[in-house]
Amino acid sequence: VSDTIRYLSLHDNKYIRYFPGHTKRVVALSMSPVDDTFISGSLDKTIRLWDLRSPNCQGLMHLQGKPVCSFDPEGLIFAAGVNSEMVKLYDLRSFDKGPFATFKMQYDRTCEWTGLKFSNDGKLILISTNGGFIRLIDAFKGAILHTFGGYNNSKAVTLEASFTPDSQFIMIGSEDGKIHVWNGESGMKVAVLDGKHTGPITCLQFNPKFMTFASACSNMAFWLPTIDD
């Protein structure tokens, strides 16, 4: 209704708190893995820092363009992707002093960044785009390690890419309902899985503890490993 973020209790299906402040659509949301803080990024070109216990924003950053953002697995730093061409790393305790590292990439006119995720070991950052490729970069140096492509995304859909929990593999859905999996170290494609999805797979999440994951278009599929006889 008003680009306000809502905090929903699944237990009784009620909103516990509203977080007003953004003036345009929220396009990025990341919960701290260690405490009650979260960050949000919006098309109003701001990133806001919040505490679940307070409706007021705890910190505000103005950017030059559309943001994507994410906490690292330790909850100590967060990364902001700005203008689809640079990644800025901020220390949570002193983010008002500005980023402690900035990695500039080559701007690609054909697409924009739609997501940013850290691997569980904190060493890698995965940048999703609404084009036909995703990028894997070194979280410390910012060097591009691999660019993964070869999946279908002709209509500029926001497809969610994911790491496996051991940080070894990267996977993304495609608009033709298939899931592509790469080895993050070698950059080689290791599998293409057919989930019989009817539309673009816009969500893909790996279970943090077990060898299962879920993929969704307008319907949802749960995946289990098979052990060949």
From TrEMBL:
Q: Give a GO cellular-component term.
A: Set1C/COMPASS complex
Q: Where in the cell is it found?
A: Nucleus
Q: Could you name the domain of life of the organism this protein comes from? A: Eukaryota
Question: Any one Gene Ontology biological process term?
Answer: negative regulation of DNA-templated transcription, elongation
Alphabetized, the UniProt keywords read: Nucleus, Repeat, Transcription, Transcription regulation, Transcription termination, WD repeat
Keyword Transcription carried by entry: yes
Q: Which InterPro entries match?
A: Swd2/WDR82, WD40/YVTN_repeat-like_dom_sf, WD40_repeat_dom_sf, WD40_rpt
Asked if the Swiss-Prot or TrEMBL record annotates the protein with the keyword Isomerase, the reply is: no
**Signal peptide from the UniProt entry:** none
Predominant localisation class: nucleus
Which molecular-function annotations from GO does this UniProt entry contain? chromatin binding
Pfam families the record matches: WD40 (PF00400)
Q: Where are the WD repeats?
A: 19-54, 151-192
Instruction: Indicate the family of this protein.
Output: Belongs to the WD repeat SWD2 family.
Q: What is this protein called?
A: WDR82 protein
This chain's source organism reads Hemiprocne comata
Q: What is the lineage of its organism?
A: Eukaryota, Metazoa, Chordata, Craniata, Vertebrata
Annotated gene: Wdr82
